[in-house]
Amino acid sequence: MPQAQDNPAVIFHIDLDAFYASVETQQNNQLHGKPVIVGSDPKDGSGRGVVMTCTYEARKFGVKSAMPISRAYELCPDGIYVRPNMKLYKTVSKRVMALISPFADKFQQTSIDECFLDVTNIVTTYDNPIELATQIKQQLAIHEGLTCSIGISPNKPISKIASDFKKPNGITLVEPTKVREFLEPLLVKRISGVGAKTQKRLNDIGIKTIGDIQAYSLDRLMQALGKHGTYFWRIANGEGSSTVHQYREAKSMSSESTFAADVGDYELISEKLDALTTRVHSQLKNSQFYYKTITLKIRFADFTTFSRSKSLGAYNNDKETIFNISKQLLDQFLHVKKKIRLLGIRLSNLRKLERRQQTLTKWL
Ligand code: TTP
Ligand code: MG
Protein backbone atom coordinates (compact mmCIF):
# COMPACT_ATOMS: atom_id res chain seq x y z
CA MET A 1 0.00 0.00 0.00
CA PRO A 2 1.41 3.46 -0.84
CA GLN A 3 2.45 5.64 2.06
CA ALA A 4 -0.38 8.03 2.93
CA GLN A 5 1.94 11.03 3.19
CA ASP A 6 2.92 10.61 -0.49
CA ASN A 7 -0.71 11.03 -1.52
CA PRO A 8 -2.73 14.27 -1.60
CA ALA A 9 -4.69 14.97 1.57
CA VAL A 10 -8.33 13.82 1.72
CA ILE A 11 -10.41 16.51 3.36
CA PHE A 12 -14.15 16.27 4.09
CA HIS A 13 -16.34 19.31 4.66
CA ILE A 14 -19.63 18.39 6.30
CA ASP A 15 -22.56 20.79 6.49
CA LEU A 16 -25.90 19.76 7.96
CA ASP A 17 -28.94 20.39 5.84
CA ALA A 18 -31.33 23.15 6.96
CA PHE A 19 -29.94 22.61 10.44
CA TYR A 20 -32.28 24.47 12.86
CA ALA A 21 -35.35 23.57 10.78
CA SER A 22 -34.30 19.91 10.55
CA VAL A 23 -33.86 19.74 14.33
CA GLU A 24 -37.38 21.16 14.74
CA THR A 25 -38.75 18.64 12.28
CA GLN A 26 -36.97 15.87 14.14
CA GLN A 27 -38.66 16.99 17.39
CA ASN A 28 -42.12 17.03 15.94
CA ASN A 29 -43.14 14.39 13.44
CA GLN A 30 -46.04 16.49 12.18
CA LEU A 31 -43.58 18.93 10.63
CA HIS A 32 -42.10 16.29 8.28
CA GLY A 33 -42.27 17.30 4.62
CA LYS A 34 -43.71 20.72 5.50
CA PRO A 35 -42.36 24.22 4.82
CA VAL A 36 -40.95 24.97 8.28
CA ILE A 37 -39.47 28.44 8.83
CA VAL A 38 -37.34 29.17 11.91
CA GLY A 39 -37.06 32.84 12.85
CA SER A 40 -38.97 35.65 14.44
CA ASP A 41 -42.76 35.81 14.74
CA PRO A 42 -44.28 36.80 11.34
CA LYS A 43 -47.34 38.32 13.11
CA ASP A 44 -49.55 37.66 10.09
CA GLY A 45 -47.17 39.57 7.86
CA SER A 46 -46.41 42.59 10.04
CA GLY A 47 -43.58 40.95 11.99
CA ARG A 48 -40.10 42.39 12.10
CA GLY A 49 -36.89 40.35 12.24
CA VAL A 50 -35.58 37.71 9.91
CA VAL A 51 -35.63 34.10 8.81
CA MET A 52 -32.82 32.11 10.40
CA THR A 53 -33.32 29.12 8.15
CA CYS A 54 -36.07 27.01 6.64
CA THR A 55 -36.64 23.50 5.33
CA TYR A 56 -36.04 22.74 1.66
CA GLU A 57 -39.84 22.57 1.24
CA ALA A 58 -40.01 26.25 2.23
CA ARG A 59 -37.07 27.10 -0.03
CA LYS A 60 -39.25 26.07 -3.00
CA PHE A 61 -41.36 29.16 -2.25
CA GLY A 62 -38.25 31.37 -2.38
CA VAL A 63 -37.83 31.68 1.39
CA LYS A 64 -34.20 31.81 2.56
CA SER A 65 -31.91 32.67 5.48
CA ALA A 66 -31.60 36.36 6.48
CA MET A 67 -34.76 37.33 4.55
CA PRO A 68 -37.20 39.65 6.41
CA ILE A 69 -39.82 37.45 8.06
CA SER A 70 -42.55 39.67 6.54
CA ARG A 71 -41.27 38.83 3.06
CA ALA A 72 -41.18 35.12 3.94
CA TYR A 73 -44.82 35.41 5.01
CA GLU A 74 -45.74 36.96 1.66
CA LEU A 75 -44.03 34.12 -0.18
CA CYS A 76 -45.24 31.32 2.06
CA PRO A 77 -48.27 32.31 4.20
CA ASP A 78 -49.12 28.67 4.91
CA GLY A 79 -45.66 27.85 6.22
CA ILE A 80 -45.12 26.66 9.77
CA TYR A 81 -43.32 29.45 11.63
CA VAL A 82 -41.23 28.36 14.61
CA ARG A 83 -39.32 30.48 17.16
CA PRO A 84 -35.69 29.40 17.56
CA ASN A 85 -34.62 27.17 20.42
CA MET A 86 -30.88 27.83 20.52
CA LYS A 87 -30.28 25.64 23.57
CA LEU A 88 -31.69 22.66 21.73
CA TYR A 89 -29.67 23.36 18.55
CA LYS A 90 -26.46 23.64 20.57
CA THR A 91 -27.15 20.36 22.37
CA VAL A 92 -27.88 18.57 19.10
CA SER A 93 -24.79 20.15 17.51
CA LYS A 94 -22.59 18.80 20.32
CA ARG A 95 -24.00 15.31 19.88
CA VAL A 96 -23.59 15.48 16.10
CA MET A 97 -19.96 16.58 16.34
CA ALA A 98 -19.23 13.85 18.89
CA LEU A 99 -20.75 11.34 16.48
CA ILE A 100 -18.77 12.55 13.45
CA SER A 101 -15.35 13.27 14.98
CA PRO A 102 -14.27 9.64 15.57
CA PHE A 103 -14.37 9.13 11.80
CA ALA A 104 -11.51 11.60 11.32
CA ASP A 105 -7.76 11.53 11.76
CA LYS A 106 -8.15 15.21 12.63
CA PHE A 107 -11.38 17.08 13.25
CA GLN A 108 -12.20 20.79 13.27
CA GLN A 109 -15.64 22.21 13.97
CA THR A 110 -16.09 25.54 12.20
CA SER A 111 -19.69 26.48 13.05
CA ILE A 112 -22.76 25.08 14.77
CA ASP A 113 -23.40 22.74 11.85
CA GLU A 114 -20.14 22.56 9.91
CA CYS A 115 -16.83 20.78 10.30
CA PHE A 116 -13.73 19.70 8.44
CA LEU A 117 -12.28 16.21 8.70
CA ASP A 118 -8.81 15.22 7.63
CA VAL A 119 -9.33 11.57 6.70
CA THR A 120 -6.13 11.06 4.67
CA ASN A 121 -5.04 7.99 6.62
CA ILE A 122 -8.27 6.56 7.92
CA VAL A 123 -9.81 6.55 4.43
CA THR A 124 -7.26 3.94 3.31
CA THR A 125 -9.13 1.41 5.49
CA TYR A 126 -12.30 1.94 3.42
CA ASP A 127 -12.88 0.96 -0.22
CA ASN A 128 -13.07 4.62 -1.19
CA PRO A 129 -13.94 8.04 0.29
CA ILE A 130 -17.59 7.72 -0.74
CA GLU A 131 -17.93 4.62 1.46
CA LEU A 132 -16.63 6.55 4.46
CA ALA A 133 -18.90 9.52 3.69
CA THR A 134 -21.88 7.18 3.36
CA GLN A 135 -21.14 5.62 6.76
CA ILE A 136 -21.04 9.04 8.39
CA LYS A 137 -24.37 9.91 6.80
CA GLN A 138 -25.89 6.63 7.94
CA GLN A 139 -24.79 7.20 11.53
CA LEU A 140 -26.23 10.71 11.46
CA ALA A 141 -29.52 9.41 10.08
CA ILE A 142 -29.78 6.51 12.54
CA HIS A 143 -28.81 8.38 15.70
CA GLU A 144 -30.15 11.89 15.04
CA GLY A 145 -32.55 11.57 12.10
CA LEU A 146 -30.61 14.34 10.34
CA THR A 147 -29.06 14.66 6.89
CA CYS A 148 -25.93 16.45 5.79
CA SER A 149 -24.00 17.22 2.65
CA ILE A 150 -20.37 16.22 2.28
CA GLY A 151 -17.70 17.69 0.02
CA ILE A 152 -14.47 15.74 -0.54
CA SER A 153 -11.30 17.14 -2.11
CA PRO A 154 -7.59 17.62 -1.35
CA ASN A 155 -8.10 20.91 0.53
CA LYS A 156 -10.48 22.87 2.76
CA PRO A 157 -11.78 25.63 0.44
CA ILE A 158 -12.56 23.20 -2.40
CA SER A 159 -14.26 20.74 -0.03
CA LYS A 160 -16.40 23.60 1.30
CA ILE A 161 -17.48 24.48 -2.23
CA ALA A 162 -18.12 20.78 -2.92
CA SER A 163 -20.33 20.27 0.15
CA ASP A 164 -22.61 23.00 -1.15
CA PHE A 165 -22.72 21.54 -4.65
CA LYS A 166 -25.39 18.85 -4.18
CA LYS A 167 -27.47 20.08 -1.28
CA PRO A 168 -29.42 18.64 0.46
CA ASN A 169 -28.19 15.15 1.36
CA GLY A 170 -25.42 15.00 -1.26
CA ILE A 171 -21.88 13.71 -1.50
CA THR A 172 -19.54 15.44 -3.95
CA LEU A 173 -16.13 13.92 -4.53
CA VAL A 174 -13.65 16.09 -6.43
CA GLU A 175 -10.68 13.95 -7.46
CA PRO A 176 -7.32 15.74 -7.13
CA THR A 177 -6.81 15.76 -10.91
CA LYS A 178 -10.32 17.14 -11.56
CA VAL A 179 -10.33 20.14 -9.23
CA ARG A 180 -9.91 22.89 -11.86
CA GLU A 181 -12.42 21.19 -14.13
CA PHE A 182 -14.98 20.98 -11.28
CA LEU A 183 -14.56 24.66 -10.38
CA GLU A 184 -14.55 26.05 -13.92
CA PRO A 185 -18.33 26.44 -14.57
CA LEU A 186 -19.25 27.58 -11.02
CA LEU A 187 -20.20 31.17 -10.26
CA VAL A 188 -17.60 33.13 -8.27
CA LYS A 189 -20.00 33.52 -5.33
CA ARG A 190 -19.51 29.82 -4.59
CA ILE A 191 -16.09 30.69 -3.15
CA SER A 192 -16.41 31.27 0.57
CA GLY A 193 -15.66 34.95 1.22
CA VAL A 194 -16.92 36.27 -2.11
CA GLY A 195 -19.81 38.47 -0.97
CA ALA A 196 -22.01 40.82 -2.97
CA LYS A 197 -19.30 43.53 -3.13
CA THR A 198 -16.51 41.31 -4.41
CA GLN A 199 -18.91 39.66 -6.79
CA LYS A 200 -19.82 43.04 -8.30
CA ARG A 201 -16.17 44.03 -8.62
CA LEU A 202 -15.42 40.78 -10.42
CA ASN A 203 -18.47 41.10 -12.68
CA ASP A 204 -17.32 44.64 -13.56
CA ILE A 205 -14.10 43.23 -15.02
CA GLY A 206 -15.96 40.51 -16.91
CA ILE A 207 -15.48 37.70 -14.38
CA LYS A 208 -18.61 35.65 -13.69
CA THR A 209 -17.37 32.11 -13.20
CA ILE A 210 -14.44 30.59 -11.36
CA GLY A 211 -13.20 29.51 -14.80
CA ASP A 212 -12.98 33.21 -15.71
CA ILE A 213 -10.62 33.68 -12.76
CA GLN A 214 -8.57 30.70 -13.92
CA ALA A 215 -8.11 32.43 -17.27
CA TYR A 216 -7.02 35.67 -15.57
CA SER A 217 -3.44 36.35 -14.55
CA LEU A 218 -2.72 36.73 -10.86
CA ASP A 219 -1.27 40.22 -11.40
CA ARG A 220 -4.42 41.51 -13.10
CA LEU A 221 -6.67 40.01 -10.45
CA MET A 222 -4.60 41.67 -7.73
CA GLN A 223 -4.98 45.00 -9.50
CA ALA A 224 -8.74 44.59 -9.34
CA LEU A 225 -9.10 43.11 -5.84
CA GLY A 226 -5.95 44.07 -3.96
CA LYS A 227 -4.32 41.45 -1.77
CA HIS A 228 -7.50 39.35 -1.52
CA GLY A 229 -6.97 38.70 -5.21
CA THR A 230 -4.22 36.18 -4.41
CA TYR A 231 -6.48 34.22 -2.07
CA PHE A 232 -9.32 33.93 -4.59
CA TRP A 233 -6.93 33.22 -7.47
CA ARG A 234 -5.33 30.35 -5.58
CA ILE A 235 -8.70 28.79 -4.72
CA ALA A 236 -9.91 29.17 -8.31
CA ASN A 237 -6.80 27.29 -9.38
CA GLY A 238 -7.45 24.49 -6.93
CA GLU A 239 -5.02 25.50 -4.20
CA GLY A 240 -5.79 25.96 -0.52
CA SER A 241 -4.94 24.87 2.97
CA SER A 242 -5.49 21.27 3.95
CA THR A 243 -4.54 21.82 7.58
CA VAL A 244 -7.35 20.69 9.84
CA HIS A 245 -6.83 22.18 13.28
CA GLN A 246 -7.75 19.73 15.96
CA TYR A 247 -8.63 21.88 18.94
CA ARG A 248 -10.11 19.45 21.40
CA GLU A 249 -8.20 16.57 22.80
CA ALA A 250 -10.03 13.31 22.49
CA LYS A 251 -11.17 11.45 25.58
CA SER A 252 -11.66 8.28 23.62
CA MET A 253 -11.43 6.98 20.09
CA SER A 254 -13.62 4.35 18.62
CA SER A 255 -14.54 2.55 15.51
CA GLU A 256 -17.58 0.36 15.07
CA SER A 257 -19.29 -1.37 12.23
CA THR A 258 -22.57 -3.13 11.59
CA PHE A 259 -22.37 -6.27 9.46
CA ALA A 260 -24.39 -6.19 6.24
CA ALA A 261 -26.01 -9.42 7.50
CA ASP A 262 -25.71 -10.92 11.00
CA VAL A 263 -22.64 -13.13 11.28
CA GLY A 264 -21.79 -16.32 13.19
CA ASP A 265 -18.59 -17.27 11.37
CA TYR A 266 -15.57 -16.75 13.64
CA GLU A 267 -13.21 -16.03 10.76
CA LEU A 268 -15.40 -13.23 9.40
CA ILE A 269 -15.74 -11.80 12.89
CA SER A 270 -11.95 -11.84 13.29
CA GLU A 271 -11.52 -10.09 9.96
CA LYS A 272 -13.90 -7.35 11.07
CA LEU A 273 -12.00 -6.99 14.32
CA ASP A 274 -8.80 -6.62 12.32
CA ALA A 275 -10.33 -3.83 10.17
CA LEU A 276 -11.66 -2.03 13.24
CA THR A 277 -8.23 -2.30 14.86
CA THR A 278 -6.62 -0.72 11.79
CA ARG A 279 -9.11 2.15 11.83
CA VAL A 280 -8.87 2.97 15.48
CA HIS A 281 -5.09 2.62 15.43
CA SER A 282 -4.94 4.99 12.50
CA GLN A 283 -6.79 7.62 14.58
CA LEU A 284 -4.44 7.01 17.45
CA LYS A 285 -1.35 7.29 15.29
CA ASN A 286 -2.46 10.55 13.77
CA SER A 287 -3.28 12.22 17.00
CA GLN A 288 -0.15 10.80 18.65
CA PHE A 289 -2.12 9.52 21.61
CA TYR A 290 -1.31 6.52 23.77
CA TYR A 291 -4.01 4.33 25.31
CA LYS A 292 -4.38 2.32 28.46
CA THR A 293 -7.91 0.89 28.10
CA ILE A 294 -9.45 -1.16 25.32
CA THR A 295 -13.20 -1.77 25.18
CA LEU A 296 -14.99 -4.19 22.93
CA LYS A 297 -18.61 -3.53 22.10
CA ILE A 298 -20.72 -6.35 20.77
CA ARG A 299 -24.32 -6.34 19.64
CA PHE A 300 -26.11 -9.57 18.88
CA ALA A 301 -28.77 -10.15 16.26
CA ASP A 302 -31.49 -9.62 18.87
CA PHE A 303 -29.98 -6.16 19.65
CA THR A 304 -28.71 -7.14 23.12
CA THR A 305 -25.50 -5.13 23.51
CA PHE A 306 -22.51 -5.67 25.79
CA SER A 307 -19.17 -3.99 26.47
CA ARG A 308 -16.08 -5.55 27.98
CA SER A 309 -12.94 -3.58 28.88
CA LYS A 310 -9.38 -4.30 29.81
CA SER A 311 -6.87 -1.81 31.12
CA LEU A 312 -3.15 -2.24 30.63
CA GLY A 313 -0.46 -1.59 33.18
CA ALA A 314 1.18 1.11 31.05
CA TYR A 315 0.39 3.48 28.20
CA ASN A 316 0.70 1.86 24.83
CA ASN A 317 0.38 2.71 21.14
CA ASP A 318 0.70 -0.76 19.78
CA LYS A 319 -1.66 -2.02 17.10
CA GLU A 320 -1.27 -5.72 17.77
CA THR A 321 -2.22 -5.28 21.41
CA ILE A 322 -5.49 -3.65 20.37
CA PHE A 323 -6.28 -6.65 18.19
CA ASN A 324 -5.18 -9.30 20.69
CA ILE A 325 -7.02 -7.81 23.64
CA SER A 326 -10.16 -7.20 21.59
CA LYS A 327 -10.04 -10.84 20.56
CA GLN A 328 -9.63 -11.98 24.16
CA LEU A 329 -12.63 -9.86 25.10
CA LEU A 330 -14.58 -11.28 22.18
CA ASP A 331 -13.74 -14.82 23.27
CA GLN A 332 -15.61 -14.19 26.50
CA PHE A 333 -18.76 -14.26 24.38
CA LEU A 334 -18.03 -17.48 22.53
CA HIS A 335 -20.52 -19.39 24.64
CA VAL A 336 -23.35 -17.14 23.41
CA LYS A 337 -24.96 -18.97 20.53
CA LYS A 338 -26.30 -15.90 18.78
CA LYS A 339 -25.18 -14.23 15.58
CA ILE A 340 -23.41 -10.89 15.82
CA ARG A 341 -24.84 -7.71 14.36
CA LEU A 342 -22.26 -5.08 15.34
CA LEU A 343 -18.73 -4.89 16.66
CA GLY A 344 -16.85 -1.89 17.98
CA ILE A 345 -13.49 -1.12 19.56
CA ARG A 346 -12.90 1.90 21.79
CA LEU A 347 -9.63 3.16 23.19
CA SER A 348 -9.81 5.32 26.28
CA ASN A 349 -7.63 6.52 29.11
CA LEU A 350 -5.72 8.42 26.44
CA ARG A 351 -2.60 10.47 26.95
CA LYS A 352 -0.01 12.26 24.94
CA LEU A 353 3.47 11.33 26.05
CA GLU A 354 6.40 13.71 26.18
CA ARG A 355 8.39 13.90 22.97
CA ARG A 356 11.29 12.14 24.72
CA GLN A 357 9.02 9.28 25.79
CA GLN A 358 7.45 9.06 22.34
CA THR A 359 10.74 8.28 20.65
CA LEU A 360 11.10 5.26 22.90
CA THR A 361 8.11 3.61 21.28
CA LYS A 362 7.99 2.90 17.61
CA TRP A 363 4.72 3.20 15.70
CA LEU A 364 3.81 -0.04 14.01
P1 TTP B 1 -26.24 27.11 7.21
O1 TTP B 1 -25.46 25.83 7.23
O2 TTP B 1 -25.74 28.22 6.38
O3 TTP B 1 -27.73 26.81 6.72
P2 TTP B 1 -28.66 25.56 6.96
O4 TTP B 1 -27.97 24.45 7.67
O5 TTP B 1 -29.93 26.02 7.59
O6 TTP B 1 -29.03 25.13 5.48
P3 TTP B 1 -28.08 24.43 4.40
O7 TTP B 1 -26.75 24.21 5.04
O8 TTP B 1 -28.77 23.15 4.06
O9 TTP B 1 -28.02 25.37 3.26
O10 TTP B 1 -26.42 27.64 8.68
C1 TTP B 1 -26.53 26.78 9.82
C2 TTP B 1 -27.54 27.36 10.78
O11 TTP B 1 -27.15 28.69 11.16
C3 TTP B 1 -28.94 27.48 10.22
O12 TTP B 1 -29.70 26.29 10.35
C4 TTP B 1 -29.50 28.64 10.99
C5 TTP B 1 -28.30 29.52 11.33
N1 TTP B 1 -28.25 30.69 10.43
C6 TTP B 1 -28.79 31.89 10.89
O13 TTP B 1 -29.25 31.98 12.03
N2 TTP B 1 -28.78 32.98 10.05
C7 TTP B 1 -28.28 32.92 8.77
O14 TTP B 1 -28.32 33.93 8.02
C8 TTP B 1 -27.74 31.68 8.30
C9 TTP B 1 -27.20 31.57 6.91
C10 TTP B 1 -27.76 30.60 9.18
MG1 MG C 1 -26.05 23.81 7.07
Question: What labels would you give this structure?
Answer:
364 residues; 5-stranded mixed β-sheet; 4-stranded antiparallel β-sheet; 14 helices; 12 strands; binds thymidine-5'-triphosphate; binds magnesium ion
Beta-strand percentage? Answer: 15-25%
The count of strands amounts to 12
The poorly predicted ranges are 1-5, 354-364
Which outline best applies? globular
Succession of helices and strands:
EHEEHHEHEEHEHEHHHHHEHEEHEH
Strands ordered across the widest β-sheet: 5-6-1-7-8
For the CA atoms, what is the radius of gyration? 24 Å
By secondary-structure content and strand pairing, the structural class works out as alpha+beta
Count of runs of 4 or more consecutive helical residues: 14
Helix content: 25-40%
Give the N-to-C terminal Cα separation: 15 Å
Which ions, cofactors or small ligands are bound in this entry?
Answer: thymidine-5'-triphosphate, magnesium ion
Mean pLDDT: 92
Main beta sheet, described? 5 strands, mixed
